[in-house]
Amino acid sequence: MKALRLLAFLGSMTAFLQAHAQDPQFSQWFAAAQYLNPALTGNTHQDRIALNYRLQWPSVRPGYETFMAAYDHRFSTVNAGMGGMVLRDKAGTSGLTSTTVGLSYSYEARINYRRAIRGGLRIGYTMRGVDPSGYLFADQVVRDNAAQTIEPNLIQQVNYLDLAGGFMYYSEKFWAGVSMNHLNRPNMSLMVDGEARLQARTSVNVGYRFGIDGRHISKSDTRMTIATHYKMQGKWDQLDLGWYIDHGQLTGGLWYRGLPIAKAYKQGYGNNDAVVVVMGYQTESQLRFVYSYDVTISKLTYKSGGSHEISLIYEWPKKPKSKKPRIIPCPKF
Questions:
Q1: Model-level pTM?
Q2: Which CATH superfamily is domain 2-316 in?
Q3: 329 partner at 20 to 30 Å CA-CA among 78, 92, 144, 212?
């Protein structure tokens, strides 16, 4: 049993401490604005609080958990937005965790009355560490099962600065944005004198929204949004493609994740990940609750337990009533 625990630890250390890791993900990427693109900071009428929680593959105990809390504010008089976010991710049984605290700034420049571009920057500080208490090292065995390891090559926590930037073009119905994360490629190695540069992550999202009840989008009670989100980090990439409908206070949608035609990592591997079902409700006070479930369609199938995700978003004040048409602050999800 001790040998198995030691081998498990060494395997996880090889995978997590030396390999190039991928970032946490949200199926409801449209509900995590600052994480999606810092240019979306302050794309509200004034203030917004957002809470996001994801539990991935709970049957592969203990699963993978990601939590994010964010706040942003729109300064309409200067066409700018500022906000902050805290993102915490825990990966599997290895005790590997990362916590990122970030501050974001965005600026909006209007092309004309109904079109604009936005640019944004995010400065983050990440604390990444591993808890070795659940493992048994060789030096503990030879020291009569000592409670703690004296392994000199392991750093239990490393801290680093993390920079991101992005741009967004939008009109009343269409938007397209790109963001670049880990611009400074920080060293995230947890080994003494180790080198594990965090690879840059590129994110591209495009969306189109229209009324399906025969009315103009600004007056429509039933609107459909077709959107796609492509992410690339090192040799890893992913595409989300789907739609959602807002009808009054209700939201429902369906997403597909995978790249079965464009890319296959090896022969016989069907590059399909999940089908995501989305359901949401918004109260009269503009508190929005969204739940989604990832139905795993890869080789893990139902054994993974899928993935659960919840978002709570509160915006205030309410959208001002005006008879004059006005440009929306930015694509709203």
A1: 0.85
A2: monomeric porin ompg (2.40.160.40)
A3: 212
